[in-house]
Amino acid sequence: MIPLNPWEHQNAIKALYSKCVEGVCEKHNITRMELDILLFLANNPCFDTATDIIEVRYLSKSQVSSSIKLLEQCGYLRKEYLVSNRKTAHLRICEKAMDIIRDGQAAQEKFISIMLDGFSQEEIDSMKQYNDQILRNINACLKGNEVE
Question: What global pTM score does this model have?
Fold first, then answer.
């Protein structure tokens, strides 16, 4: 018997998150992928390239590329190139996107508060440590392609 089946609840978690952010997408007339990219960049400033988004979030290159292009066209993102590396585009959030990001982060906070309702801070801290270890295990396996 498997003692823990984290995948059993993943669809419910995804459904709850979608429910929390759908109003933001509708309000600002953007897709879920576009919102996810803006929030990823806002919440993870150390990851600022399309490659980072693809690798960290396990998203498809084509979806990320087309969404970035649309976000640029709308004036929500711009690309910057470093003098030392003119090939890599670093994505910068424009001021025009700040209302979307604020609304998106508020939706994320609502999602987290629903998920963690009834847990003590100590339990939340432990859960974070366990989830971090699970993610490290997953990433190590996926990077090494070690599934038997």
Answer: 0.86
CATH for 29: 1.10.10.10
Instruction: Cite the beta strand spans of the chain per DSSP E.
Output: 77-82, 85-93
Report yes or no on 143 lying in a domain: yes
Same domain, 106 and 148: no
DSSP state of 18: H
Instruction: Tell me, yes or no, whether 138 and 98 share the same domain.
Output: no
Q: What is the mean pLDDT of the chain?
A: 92
What's the total number of domains in the chain?
A: 2
Q: Which amino acid is at 106?
A: A
How far apart CA 3 and CA 87 sit, in angstroms, is 47
Q: Are 98 and 39 in contact (CB under 8 A)?
A: no
Q: Which structural domain, as residue segments, surrounds residue 136? A: 118-148
Whose CA is closest to 93, among 44, 54, 30?
44
**Residue scoring higher pLDDT (7 or 20):** 20
The tokens describing 140, both together, are 């190590």
Query: pLDDT tens digit string along 48-95?
Result: 999 999 999 989 999 999 999 999 999 999 999 988 888 899 999 999
